[in-house]
Amino acid sequence: MLTKIYIWRTKLYKQVQEALILKDIEDMDMRELLEQGIASEINAQRKYGAVAKENFSYALHDKLAFLKKQEKGHEKELRKLFKKHFPDEEPDIPEKVLKPAPDIEMESEAIGELFQEAMESEKESKKFYEHLSDRLDDEELKKTANYLAHMEEGHYKILKHELESMQKFKGRWGEVRAF
Hints:
Number of domains: 1
Order of helices and strands: HHHHH
């Protein structure tokens, strides 16, 4: 019974958090949206890079390094969008992002939970870019935002596949970090 209550409370908390994030995004002007996007991509690069340094299989390491590189590309695209909208200005990157990448504490957090959080973060990023696309008038910029949303969906699928593989084959290699 307590487990069911905990799961319900966790889902409710996530729904409230998502609603607040969307409200914050709705209240942002274009400059703030782009700066938030850049900050989020920088944060994701840092997180994927940190996880990739852990003692995983070479295949998982390569996928995490790939995701980090993809996030760097997204940052570059957002900086181009910023330059197009604000040609004579530099973005003021916020220290706090609305939907930060999950914190990484490998000793205290199960790798499965870490991947679940990363998957949620990718889903939120997709929503962010879809919202950004809706706010843009320029068709080229709109396509860029939609492309980034599509890429974030791809990241979600990569993480989901890796998580499923870890769960399916864990017994073969023992602990996930050991293979």
